[in-house]
Amino acid sequence: IRFLVAMSTKNRSFAYLFLLITLVSFLLTFKSSLSFLALLCSFVGVCGSFQPTDRGIRLFFMAGNLTWLIHNILAATPVAALMEAAFLTSSIVGYCRFCRIPRNTASRSR
To answer: Are 58 and 95 within 8 A, CB to CB?
Structure first.
């Protein structure tokens, strides 16, 4: 639902609503100190969803991937850590492609 809302609006009020929902979910499901890292990961994802630029969204999502990767390593969940590493790698490649300077094809002579 968050992604659908974020696609249709960048209104900060909705971001705050989803941050509040995330916080309430955290409070209801708290298990250990590692839960705080999961909360941070979720907050980064929510903030990333409501960024006004593609670059901002990509950077926040990469930060989210990195924090989830750290969380999964600390939680000793190797499959989840591998999954996040794959997502992070994909995000980095996508970001590099997104930011790459377009080639000037008109200057090429054949």
So the answer is: yes
Report the distance separating Cα 19 and Cα 31, nearest Å: 19
Q: What is the pTM of this model?
A: 0.82
Q: How many CA atoms lie within 13 A of 16 on its CB side?
A: 3
Each residue's pLDDT tens digit, 79-99? 999 999 999 999 999 999 888
Burial of 110 (0-12, 13-18, 19+ CB in 10 A): exposed
Residue written as tokens 């960048």?
A: 10
Q: What DSSP string runs through 8-49?
A: H---HHHHHHHHHHHHHHHHHH--STHHHHHHHHHHHHHHHH
Q: Roughly what angle, to the nearest 10 degrees, separates helices 34-49 and 12-29?
A: 160
